[in-house]
Write a structure and sequence with these properties.
With 418 residues, the chain is an all-alpha fold. The protein has helices at residues 8-40, 46-59, 63-72, 77-86, 100-128, 134-162, 167-186, 204-221, 223-242, 246-253, 258-267, 271-286, 289-300, 302-311, 317-350, 355-383, 386-411.
């Protein structure tokens, strides 16, 4: 990263974001391994896995209210501290964790507060970093975070294979590191107008209703953003419906150890994020979001196809596992792009408006599809078979890629050449 091209504010902000990314890398490790811990250590039932995979998207449903509060607040740093205390340090309770239901509650609290963190971070990037290298800086923070995540995931896998009950220590360390990450974000001074001394206190009814009205108005008036959300909803159905099924396939069907599971899900799947995020971030800054996500979803389409192929070669165990590793390599490359788009594209559509509310709408839409997709995945597995899940998921991803390409072709005459 060429620091000479950054302003003093950008340098200071980038430094804090990179420090936050170091500690958030440990939290990212949990995102990739939480389901394996649930299935192997806590013996989660199929329905509990389904509920666990619904927690993150459903918790995101409340993001429009979090985003509205953050947008109107004159003391934005306090929100990062709140997330750090209630959304991260609560994982210390894992010292006493013994049941899957307790684990579900902990994850629910963590992801509930995480739905505030996402739009809040977007506001930092929009207000403090110029658009010409915004996604590139974000890419560097992702790469640094993934480097830590990969190292911690490998350590966790080896530790759990030797002593399974150490998952409690892993969760506690995750909570402490997550809190430190939020502290660094709270230290960023967001560049925005000074708040007025006299402020009108909104009515409670307006606080509840205004974000809903704002969301509907935003989607109605900003047609491109609404089309972008439609494409992401189609992609999300395919992606989320696989999430409760993957740990069942890896643990019950392939019978992989912690180390092998974590190597696939937590290390190989992160290679793309580690090495490609800065480069892909640079590409994202140059391309229209529709063109970018069309390619991203198209690459991700290969992930369920490869898992499907693996499931047809179970009699050749080594080959089947090798194909899963290739699937996660492809997954990592695709998700390096999807991750940047998911976090940065809302800023493009927001224009001069506050990106926090746009990202809140984007995150909330995840909650809507999160209510449907995991249930669909589990029903397909129960009544048709596990391979049906990957076939239908691949169909959704292919559809999302095609419709995004069509949207870009519609806009192409009015767009500058990338």
């Amino acid at each position: 990263m060429n620091l000479s091209k950054l302003s003093p504010i950008e340098k200071s902000t980038a430094g804090m974001l990179l420090m936050a990314a170091i500690f958030n890398g440990v939290v990212s490790s949990l995102y990739q391994t939480q389901d394996i811990i649930a299935r192997k250590a806590l013996h989660a039932a199929d329905w509990q896995l389904m509920l666990m995979m619904m927690i993150w998207p459903v918790a995101n449903f409340f993001s429009i209210w979090w985003g509205r509060l953050f947008e109107k607040s004159c003391h934005k740093s306090r929100y990062f501290v709140v997330v750090g205390i209630f959304g991260r340090l609560t994982l210390i309770y894992a010292i006493w964790l013994t049941t899957m239901n307790e684990y579900l509650v902990l994850l629910g609290i963590m992801f509930g507060f995480n739905s505030l963190l996402i739009p809040a971070q977007n506001s930092i990037y929009q207000k403090n970093i110029n658009s010409t290298h915004r996604a590139k800086i974000y890419g560097y923070t992702i790469s640094l975070g993934m480097l830590i995540s990969i190292g911690f995931t490998f350590f966790a896998g080896r530790l759990l294979d030797s002593q399974e009950n150490m998952y409690r220590l892993i969760l506690v360390l995750t909570g402490i590191c997550g809190f430190i990450s939020c502290v660094f974000l709270a230290l960023v001074k967001i560049q925005e107008p000074i708040c007025p001394q006299v402020r009108v206190k909104p009515k409670f009814r307006d606080v509840l209703a205004d974000p809903i009205h704002r969301t509907l108005k935003l989607l109605k008036e900003n047609k491109q953003f609404a089309a972008f959300e439609r494409s992401y909803s189609i992609y999300g159905m395919g992606f989320i419906m696989m999430t409760p099924i993957i740990p069942i396939y890896l643990v019950d069907v392939l019978k992989l150890s912690y180390t092998t599971n974590f190597l696939a899900k937590g290390i190989i799947s992160q290679v793309g994020l580690l090495f490609l995020s800065p480069y892909i971030g640079k590409i994202h800054d140059r391309l229209h979001p529709f063109r970018f996500i069309s390619v991203s979803f198209g690459i991700l389409f290969l992930y369920p196809i490869l898992i499907l192929l693996s499931s047809q070669l179970l009699q050749y165990h080594v080959l089947s596992v090798a194909i899963v590793f290739v699937a996660y390599l492809v997954f990592g490359i695709a998700m390096a792009a999807v991750n940047i788009s998911w976090n940065m594209s809302s800023i493009y559509f927001a224009g001069a408006e506050d990106a926090a509310m746009y990202q809140s709408v984007h995150v909330t839409m995840t909650g809507i599809r999160g209510l449907i997709a995991p249930v669909l995945g589990l029903l397909l597995m129960k009544f048709i078979g596990i391979t049906a899940v990957f076939v239908v998921a691949a169909g959704f991803l292919f559809w999302a890629s095609l419709i995004s390409y069509r949207d870009h072709k519609k806009l192409e005459p009015a767009l500058p050449i990338a």
